[in-house]
Amino acid sequence: MANKKIPTEKHQRAEELHEILQRANYHYYVLDNPELPDAEYDRRLRELQELETEYPQLVTPDSPTQRVGAEPLKEFAEVRHEVPMLSLDNAFGDDELLEFDRRVRDRLNTDKPVEYACEPKLDGIAISLLYRDGLLERAATRGDGTTGEDITQNVRTIGSVPLKLLEDGVPDVLEVRGEIYMPKAGFAEMNRAAAKAGEKTFVNPRNAAAGSLRQLDSRITAKRPLELCVYGVGLLEGGSLPGKHTEILQQLNRWGFRINSEMAAAKDIQACIDYYKELGEKRGELAYDIDGIVYKVNDIGLQRRLGFVARAPRWAMAYKFPAQEEMTLLKDVEFQVGRTGAVTPVARLEPVFVGGVTVSNATLHNRDEIERLGVKIGDTVVIRRAGDVIPQVVSVVAAKRSNKARNIVFPDHCPVCDSPVESVPGEAVLRCSGGLICSAQRKQAIKHFASRKAMDIDGLGDKLVEQLVDEGLLHSVSGLYDLTLEQVAGLERMGQKSARNLLDALERSKDTTLPKFLYALGIREVGETTARNLARHFGDLEPLMQADGEALREVDDVGPVVAHFVAEFFDQPHAQEEIEALRQAGVHWAPEEQGGEDRPLSGQTWVLTGKLETLSRSEAKDYLLRMGAKVAGSVSANTDTVVAGPGAGSKLNKARELDVATMDEDEFLEMLRGRGIEI
């Protein structure tokens, strides 16, 4: 069948997409300064692919669909990959992943399920590491997939990159592929230090990793918190590897390479979908950014049978998570007041779907952040939402700025109570000076006090708190315990039964623990862990209230700043009055056992995974912390015990691989009861 004629508008659109994508590639791969969010790039590329599928005559050698990226810069020596570093096809829904599995089984001519290797798709920089006789000879970027850049000196500075491989049996020549990335904590600390020094900060960890790897001075790279995680092998000479992808990664791990602890084998495509959902739920808790899952046919022999298409293997697919970055319009900026009086600028946006939800507001943090971004009202901005993190503005698309854009002006008086706004020396945050006179601070303080991890007052939601304050029925946290049935039942959407349930919940909340009470007070910088450490160190409230800064700094994880905030809080007459009012209302707790070196689980590290049925995850964590254990988020050789509930996945597998002790929930409950804890 002859090719059908290409309509003029289709031809023009293809040329336009060529230009957009080529420019985006240049900014992303060459300048390390992305112009388009990943989701926007993916959409444009898919549109071009669909046009070329409909009109094959549109396919040209320079089409962005025909290559991985842009050509490398010339400052580094060029490296030609012996085995091309291809990209992966993407799936954006379960249907597309199921279709991938169907194609795999059709090509293999089998109706049996295919086993897949599942790995998080790290949001970093693809890298090739060439080892000869077990020694690192060369490190190169992927570049355009055929030619990359020699960045050996920079890569040698990264601690997780082995310079010499471990154990025997290393092939004569081994080329390993992996991802160099920057963990979230390291990225945050690096940006804090840069901002303090008045230097440029990075937009996101991937951009920071790219910029760090492409420094001509390797001493700069050495100061950056980069990590390597390997995911495969390219060239192999004079040696052999196991027959499954997951087994190859385990072998690489034994030779000294870091592999992802979340890696797992899935028995069929449904297990792949389950893995995607499981990892998606804890995506925000991971120590690094990921933007999807990579699935590979696990059997290497089957991989060889499946082969490749022009730019991607037939045996692998990347299933992308909902986009975490999108572009939208900043329509206005409003200012909110928090429980500590912080006046925070909030961007009002043209609604945009990002990170799986529709976002219309995003934080701008403070005045320093606005100056760093150079953002104005009316700008087109890039919004980022990672996991459950509050959406934030991460950059401005300067090329789209109109001449109507206007500066963001901070208020000199509180937008809620009209009290003067103060600038505290050494802080970027402006604060309302109104204290509890300010209804916004009062509302936030009460919401925090009632929250689940604090006093856990069931039924006292945000809207009810706002009603109580707005109606003049509540002026402090202690006033919660003075509420009457008539007052509560008279509120909108509250009847006698709901009101009685709330008063019963308030009564139950009076029986609490000292750590929960300290956390509920809302002392600046005192979170759950610090509250627990303070309680255990001092044993009861009175000695804590009398402690000076020097005594406070003896507490684990309490430095000068936290010690200052704690001492300052307890020195305030109104804080002392509130605490006394709460105690008079009947709020009480048992003294804490001081110290902790001799607690039954002191020095041990535990991990919770899966869904616990009798206890919530936070309750189980609290019991472990009370007994002196540290509760970690991932399994390692240093883990003592893993508690695995129904649905436990990769963490349980990792524990078994490392021969770490495991117990189910029943065994965990039996252990707690054996320690005298009533469940």
From TrEMBL:
NAD(+) binds at residues 38-42, 87-88, 119, 142, 179, 296, 320. This is DNA ligase. Its cofactor is Mg(2+); Mn(2+). It catalyses: NAD(+) + (deoxyribonucleotide)n-3'-hydroxyl + 5'-phospho-(deoxyribonucleotide)m = (deoxyribonucleotide)n+m + AMP + beta-nicotinamide D-nucleotide. DNA ligase that catalyzes the formation of phosphodiester linkages between 5'-phosphoryl and 3'-hydroxyl groups in double-stranded DNA using NAD as a coenzyme and as the energy source for the reaction. It is essential for DNA replication and repair of damaged DNA. PANTHER family: CHROMOSOME TRANSMISSION FIDELITY FACTOR 18, DNA LIGASE. Keywords: DNA damage, DNA repair, DNA replication, Ligase, Magnesium, Manganese, Metal-binding, NAD, Zinc. Residues 596-679 form the BRCT domain. The keyword Cell division does not apply.
